[in-house]
Amino acid sequence: MNKLCMALIAGGLCLGLRVQAQDALGVWLPPADRVQSIVKNSHGILAAQSQQAAQLQRARATEAGAGEFNLRMSQQNRRAIDPGGRFNEQLVSLERPVRWWGKAGLDANLAEQSRKVASIGYADALHEASRELMRQWFALHQLALAREAAKAQAQLSQELHRQAQLRLKQGDISQLDASLAQAELQRAQSAVAVSQAQWAAAWAQVQKRYPGLPEPAWPKAQSDVPELPALQPLLQEFLQNHHELNLRRAEMQGLRLQAERMDRDRLPDPVLGVYAARERAGAESIVGLSLGFALPGSARQAHAAAALAEANQLEEQVQQMTLDLGAAFEARWLNLHLQRQALTSLQSAAQTQAVAVAQSLKAFAMGEHSMTELIQNRRLAQESLRERQRLQLELVESWALMNLDLHRIWDFDE
Fold this sequence. Notes:
alpha+beta, four-stranded antiparallel β-sheet, disordered N terminus
C-alpha cells in the first residue's frame, strides 16, 4: 500500500512538473501539434520509419528461424545381371532442420529484443528531430531579436537626428554635434539592413526545411523560468528517459542474447526428413525417415566467445556514456542557475542604464552633456537591453531543451 501511494505521489508530481513546464514555455514555443506534424512528416523521420519497418521484419525472420524445407529428387537407371534387365528408379525426400536445445525460445527472445531496439531507435529519431527544430527555432528568435533591436536603435537615432537638426537651426548645438547625430543614424540604418538580411536568409532556409513553422515573435506576456528542483531527482529522470542510452542498453541485452544463442549453436540442430523410393521399375517401394547431424568444429565456439566479448565491450561503453551524460546534465543544471543569476543582474543594469539615459537627455537639453555623451549613453542603454533579452532567450532555450530531454514537452513518441 505504501509503495502504491508513493508511486501515485511520484506520478502526480511528474504530471504537475510537466504541466508547469508546458505553461511556462508555451508562450516561447510554436504550438506542439504543429511541431508534431512538421517533425513526423520530415524526411528524416520518414526514413526512420522505414528503418523501423526493416528491423521489425528482421525480428520476424529471427523468430521464424532460418530452417527451410529441402526437397530432393533423383532419377537413376539400374542394370541387373541375375535376373538381367534394366530398371528405372526414383527417389523423393523432404528434409528440414529442427531447432532443438531451447533455440526456438532464444530466437523468440532475440526477436522481441529487436522489436524493442526498433521502437527505441524510432523514438530517438523523433526526439533528435524535435531537438534540432527547437535549436533552429531559438536561433531564429535570436536573429529576430537582433533585427528588432536594430530597428529600435534606428528609430531612436532618427529622432535624435531630427532634434539635432532643429537645434542646429536654432544655434543651440554645433555642426560637429549634428554630424555625430547623422553618423549615428547612418550606422543604425546599416545595422538594420544587415540584421534584416541575416534574418531573411535564415528564415528562408528554415521555411524550406520545416514548412508550416510559424514566425517567432517576442511574447508580450512571459512567465519566469521557475527554480530548478534538486539535481539528483532530475538526473535520475533524465538518465531513465534518455533514448540513446536506452538504445545502447537494449543493444547490449540483444548482444548477450545473441551470444547465448551462438553458444547454444555448439549443439547442432538435427535435420529430419522423410523419403520414398521406387526401385526395380516399381517392383520394390521404400518409405523411410532420415536423421542427420552436423559435426561441429571450433568455429562455433569462437563465434560465441566473440559475441560475448562484444556484449561486454558495449556494457562498458554504456557505463561510460552514463557517466558522461550525467556530468553533462549536471553542468547544464548549474549553468541554468548561473544564467538566472546573471539575468537578474542584467535586468537591474538595464533599468539603471535607462534612468541614466533619461538624465543624460535632460542634461543635453540644458547644455550640460554633449551629443557624443548622449549618443554613447543611448547606445549603452540599447546594448544593455539587448544583452538582457539575449540572455533571457538563452535561459529559456536552456530550460526548454532540458524539459525536452526530460520528456515534459514535445513527447511525440508516447
